[in-house]
Amino acid sequence: MPSILPEGDPAPADGSLPASVADGAAGRSFGVYVHVPYCRVRCGYCDFNTYTASELGGTSRADYAAQAQWELRFGAEVMRRAGLPDRRVATVFFGGGTPTLLPADDLAALLSTVREEWGLAPGAEVTTEANPDSVDEAYLARLAEAGFTRVSFGMQSAVPHVLRTLDRTHAPERVPLVTRWAREAGLDVSVDLIYGTPGESLADWERSIDAALATEPDHVSAYALIVEPGTKLAAQIRRGEVPEPDEDLHAEMYELADARFSAAGFDWYEISNWARGEEHRSRHNLAYWTGEDWWAAGPGAHSHIGGVRWWNVKHPGAYAQRIAAGISPAHARETLSEAARREERILLETRIAAGLPAEVLLPAERRAIPELIANGLIDGRSAIAAPGRAARVIPTLRGRLLADSVVHRLLG
């Protein structure tokens, strides 16, 4: 089941934000995230805030688009009252769950609401996640017509026994079809993979890499399987029904993926993400990693504006009740201190290829840089300032595998 929401400060019913969120806002980009919390089945490894039909408690998917539209309009008004400058939306991302379980017209209507309330910046990136068995040619064409620019398919694996362990419902042969239909509709294509599933061999993983590359995507994500407490997979491992993930095998799988993606013309730009050229990077996700602003609508969605972070009630029923009452669906929030924002920046920007400006580090933290270089965890040339080039902390391949160690060493 989905994990429990964190506690925080009370969130005001009118959604009001402190005046401080406007400080420096003109220099930050603004994005919108829409969480669609529905899935046909619950995958055994997943602890995302998603619900199958039997878990909805009397609420209906048919009502959801109107509820999320209300929150988007509410959010635009809250931001105006806070004195935030007018900013067109640079990126929109529909995630889940499975957003494409909603009719394409519902997603189009939600995007239209974003456009009406804030406007879309020229060249805005508009993405939806999709399961391969949740769309067809007509659906993808309707998304493109509505203004979507990108679709991210949850491929996960090309190997049937791995998909069964993950409780994925699509057939591997479906992926080449939907990626072709998306490209024919004019959409950029990303495929998501998971490695390290119990029982998955290195040869299985290589087969999935080959199958993903054969679809000629613009972007690939590859995530190590994490066994989350409370999931079906965690219970299976506890009972000895499937083996625990092997961290050494995870590392081999990551190195293989990086080598194969690089040979195919993809550049890594975040630990788990590769793109065929800078223009195909996920700008929405980069905004998360670089601390920009976003309003997130939907049950359990987390927003961030100007150092204030808040999260909505989780269950679709509780969310619907808040919307019907005309009050903020936020469950709680927190205002990050300058120290917390700086530490979070170190945590996130040491994950990306652009790296972390060394000037962000305190003098005591900078003293860790020579050791990190010596241990092969960060790029030595980039970490030393030169004429016309500021010093940056950029992880090596080894540093990507040991990202937590890099952060721990910097923060002491």
Give your account of this protein's structure.
The chain has 412 residues and is an alpha/beta fold. The protein has 2 domains: 9-289, Alpha-Beta Horseshoe (pyruvate-formate lyase- activating enzyme); 337-412, no CATH class. The chain is built from 15 helices and 15 strands. The protein has helices at 64-81, 104-117, 137-146, 160-166, 174-184, 202-214, 232-238, 247-263, 283-289, 316-325, 338-349, 363-366, 369-374, 397-401, 403-411, and strands spanning 9-10, 30-36, 89-96, 120-130, 150-156, 188-195, 219-224, 267-270, 273-275, 293-297, 302-305, 308-312, 330-335, 356-357, 392-393. The strands form 3 sheets. Strands 8-9-7-6-5-4-3-2-10 form a 9-stranded mixed beta sheet, with helices on both faces. A 4-stranded antiparallel beta sheet has the order 1-13-12-11, with no helix packed on it. It is globular and about 60 Å long. The two termini are 35 Å apart.
